[in-house]
Amino acid sequence: MKQILVATDFSQHAERALDRAVLLATEHRAVLEVLHVITPASVDALCDFLPDPRHVVEEKLANSLSAQLYHFIDQVEPEWPIAIQPRVKIAEVEAGIIEAAEACDADLIVLGSHGEHLAHELFVGTTAENVLARGRRPVLIAKQKAAAPYARIGVPVDFSECSATVVRKAFELAPNAMTSLLHAFQVPNHEHLQQFGATDKKIKRYYSEFYDRATQEIEKLATEREDIRISRVVEMGYPPAMIRRWTEKLHFDLIVMGKHGDRLGSVVRHVLHNSACDVMIVG
Questions:
Q1: What is the pLDDT of residues 107-163, one digit of tens each?
Q2: pTM above 0.90, yes or no
Q3: Is 125 left (phi over 0), alpha (psi -120 to 50) or beta?
Q4: How many domains does the chain have?
Q5: Rg for the chain, CA atoms, rounded
Q6: Contact at 8 Å (CB) between 31 and 25?
Q7: What string of DSSP letters covers 216-269?
Q8: Which of 123, 138, 178 is nearest to 154 (CA)?
């Protein structure tokens, strides 16, 4: 990665995002752009109290928040010197983040798990879900303190066209981490199949065929990487529940998932809202 963008609102959760972004920029020797977005509503609120023209109010607010942004960045102590570029932008939050990412050609957008905007949620809410849905670039949600580089990554795959891209992006982000490719498959309930006349033998064969097919597909993804640090996990179960169980059992510090088009699927949403570890979504 050459360029990383981290959005901040100066909250405690934004500090986690900044720390993780700094750590990643250090690992990859990437340029880090630190963005704060001023909403038009914030400008409107000040205009109601100040006698100055709107453009003067915008300039005063931008200067004040730029100073705050520089102070925020000064608290960071990277292990090695990295290029940090502060930026203040007036826009709706999600549009500002997406536009800034396009402008700097960001390889990754980093957000905190919560924020202090109007909805009190930079991530779990409309703002970040719009960034995730509308944006074309990978988005990393930093939920935990960035104490060290990622060591254990879980990559749930569904064998769609984007699965190979998701695996590749996970390796690009953390090439030295142990990576587990995960697939949870669901089949009709055993009792329901019996009610429709299926024998136990046929049901077992049916389950076995599902498992074998999934194992073959996940092996293809693993073989493409030719890396001894890849493990494969295929189990039957409800995907969100299985991802949560795998995360706890295998101690993942990052989950990397793919999205399909401009909408976030139910499994992705569940992981975003409920995962204790960091989550990266790849378009």
A1: 999 998 764 443 334 444 556 778 888 888 999 999 999 989 999 999 999 998 889
A2: no
A3: left
A4: 2
A5: 22
A6: yes
A7: HHHHHHHHHHT-TTEEEEEEES-HHHHHHHHHHHHT-SEEEEE-BTTB--HHHH
A8: 178
Tell how far CA 277 is from the center of its chain: 10
Q: In the chain, where do the E strands start and end?
A: 3-7, 31-38, 84-90, 108-112, 139-142, 152-156, 178-185, 230-236, 254-258, 278-282
Contact yes or no for 2/122 (Cβ under 8 A): no
Tokens representing 264? 């976030």
Q: Write phi, then psi, for 33 (nearest 5 degrees).
A: -100, 125
Q: What is the CATH number of the domain that holds 13?
A: 3.40.50.620
CB–CB of 119/90 below 8 Å?
Answer: no
* Predicted pLDDT of residue 126: 59
The pLDDT, as a whole number, for residue 250 is: 95
Give long-range contacts, CB 8 A cutoff, 24+ apart: 74-79. Answer: 75/15, 76/18, 76/19, 76/22, 78/22, 78/23, 78/25, 78/26, 79/26
The 3 state secondary structure assigned to 17-46 is: HHHHHHHHHHHHCCEEEEEEEECHHHHHHH
159, amino acid identity: F
Q: Residue 179 — left, alpha, or beta (φ > 0 → left; ψ -120 to 50 → alpha)?
A: beta
Q: What does residue 250 show for φ and ψ, rounded to 5 degrees? A: -100, 0
Is 249 inside any structural domain? Answer: yes
Contact 225, 171 (CB under 8 A): yes
Straight-line distance from the first to the last Cα atom of the chain, in angstroms, rounded to the nearest whole number: 16
Listed residues 122, 142, 162: the one ending a domain: 142
Q: Please, what is the Cα angle at 53 between 48 and 56, to 5 degrees?
A: 105
Task: Evaluate whether residue 219 is within a structural domain.
Answer: yes
Could you list the residue range(s) of the whole structural domain that residue 257 is in? Answer: 152-282
